[in-house]
Design a protein that fits this description.
With 160 residues, the protein is mainly alpha-helical. α1 packs antiparallel against α5.
C-alpha cells in the first residue's frame, strides 16, 4: 500500500480520537458532572468543579491542538480529491467545510466566554447549563459536517 494511505489513515485516526475526547468530555460535563453537582452543597461544589476542570483542561487543550493541525491537513488533502468533482459537488463541499469552520470558531469563542471570569461574561456564566448544552449541539453538528465531508471525498474516489 501507498505510504500516503497510512499517513492519511493516521491523520484521520488522530482527528477522530481528538474529536471523541472533546465531544465526549462535553457530553460528560453536561449530562453527568453538572447534574451531579446540583446535589452537592455550594461550599463543596466549587472545589469539585475546579478539580474536574483542572484535570480535564489539559486533555481538552491537547485535543483542540490536534484537531486544528489534523483539520488543516485534511483540508489541504481535500483539494486533491475535489479536482475530479463537478462544480456543484465542489461548491457544496466548500460551503459545508467553511460552515463547519465557522461553527468551530463560534464554539471556541463560547468556551472562552464560559471560562473567562470577566464581568461582561457573567450572564453567560450564570446560564452555563444552557450554554454547555449549546456547545454539545454545536459539537454534534460539527461531527455531522465532518461525516458529510468525509463521505463526499470518499464518493470521489474511483476504484479501478
Amino acid at each position: 500500500m501507498d505510504p500516503q494511505f497510512y499517513a492519511t489513515t493516521f491523520n484521520k485516526w488522530l482527528h477522530l480520537s481528538a474529536a471523541g475526547i472533546v465531544v465526549g468530555g462535553l457530553i460528560y460535563l453536561r449530562f453527568v458532572l453538572i447534574p451531579t453537582l446540583d446535589g452537592v452543597e455550594e461550599s463543596q461544589r466549587t472545589p469539585i468543579w475546579q478539580a474536574a476542570y483542572k484535570r480535564s483542561m489539559r486533555w481538552i487543550l491537547y485535543a483542540f491542538a490536534v484537531l486544528i493541525l489534523t483539520g488543516i491537513d485534511n483540508g489541504l488533502r481535500s483539494r486533491r480529491f475535489l479536482q475530479v468533482a463537478t462544480p456543484d459537488v465542489r461548491d457544496t463541499y466548500w460551503m459545508v467545510f467553511w460552515t463547519k469552520v465557522a461553527v468551530v470558531i463560534l464554539a471556541f469563542i463560547l468556551v472562552h466566554f464560559l471560562i473567562i471570569g470577566a464581568p461582561p461574561f457573567r450572564r453567560i456564566q450564570e446560564a452555563y447549563r444552557r450554554w454547555v448544552t449549546v456547545l454539545v449541539v454545536a459539537a454534534l453538528l460539527i461531527v455531522y459536517f465532518s461525516g458529510f465531508l468525509t463521505l463526499t471525498r470518499l464518493s470521489l474516489i474511483r476504484l479501478p
